[in-house]
Amino acid sequence: MRTIVFDLDGTLADTSGDLIAAANFSFEHMGVGALLDPEADQLTAFHGGRAMLRLGLERLGRAGDEDEVDRLFPHFLQAYGDRIDVFTTLYDGAMEAVARFRAAGDRVTICTNKPEGLAETLLQRLGIRGEFDHLIGADTLPVRKPDPAPLRAAIENVGGSVERAVLIGDTNTDRECAANLGIPVVLVTFGPSGDAVSALNPDALIGHYDELDAVVDRLIPRGQ
């Protein structure tokens, strides 16, 4: 049995639109209006809520104002939780790939740096929670990726083994996490970083989920 572990944001789904909308809501709460652009600031969105808040404050000339970041963060979380699936879309072919792995008897799970509650809510809203055997979020354990503990838990909690697992992700955090655990990593080039992820020297790259089956078969041959 193989275990296919997916990252969530930027790998399975483009969540940047809802993340940026929530950050802009926080800035509007300050009375300064929207400070982030849904297109130009997409990559920052995948670095998390605090990264977006810091970027907006920097544009106000308030770089390094961590007290304000801390004050705004609860507003961001509330806004994001309320409207978590307005703009979010699944990447083309993602769930078809998941279905193929499940049909072949592989375990399919998620290891994300999104807080577990928000990840569960998003997957439920998208109607796909039942397609994954388990989920590990940023706060499921005391540590998060690139620490290997969450990835190990994601594998072992579905009865898998590290020796027969692969991580599908989109960032250096995913690459480092997989390396720290000693498993292969496949990075997607359709995420926010695009082809730039090739510089991270992953075990494989894919430009569409139609390519994933053959890549995983090469990295973890079926039946061995």
Task: Give a short overview.
With 224 residues, this protein is an alpha/beta fold.
Strand order of the largest sheet: 5-4-1-6-7-8
Whole-number mean pLDDT: 96
CATH architecture of the largest domain: 3-Layer(aba) Sandwich
Number of domains: 2
Number of helices: 9
Strand content: 5-15%
Residues in helices, as a percent range: 40-55%
CATH topology of the largest domain: Rossmann fold
Task: Evaluate the radius of gyration.
Answer: 18 Å
Layout of helices and strands:
Layout: E1 3-6, E2 13-14, H1 16-30, H2 42-45, H3 49-59, H4 66-82, E3 89-90, H5 94-103, E4 107-111, H6 116-126, E5 135-136, H7 148-156, E6 165-169, H8 172-181, E7 185-188, E8 204-206, H9 212-219
Parallel strand pairs: 1-4, 1-6, 4-5, 6-7, 7-8
Antiparallel strand pairs: 2-3
